[in-house]
Model the fold of this input.
Amino acid sequence: MSAPASASSVVSVVCALIEREGRVFVAQRPPHKHLGGKWEFPGGKIEPGETPEAALVRECREELGCEVVPGERLPEAVHDYGTVVIRLIPFVARLAEPAIDPQSSEHAAVRWILPEEFASLDMPAADEPIVRAYRKRQ
Done:
């Protein structure tokens, strides 16, 4: 990865690896969006003055209609997409109410997968080191 042109071109983003019953929640980006069709972990941009944990809770509430409890923070991943550099801050998380299924109006599809199924998913390059770190801790 090359160094970003300026600090302002780096976008800090959080993502949640939501666990339930040995599975992890993933969502598929809509076809009309950047990286359309790729599977990702839910999350989004950190707002000014917001902690990564608070951003994770807010983004999951907004995107999935559910509350999550952030847990272990995994190593950050930085990826240069050419037009923007993403600083991805991942957390292992759980649902505050396990009986509630996350729903997303922002994604083409959602599903719960076993950790060994990550290899079969088409995921953004920025997520690859996160998957490796997650699998390594198991």
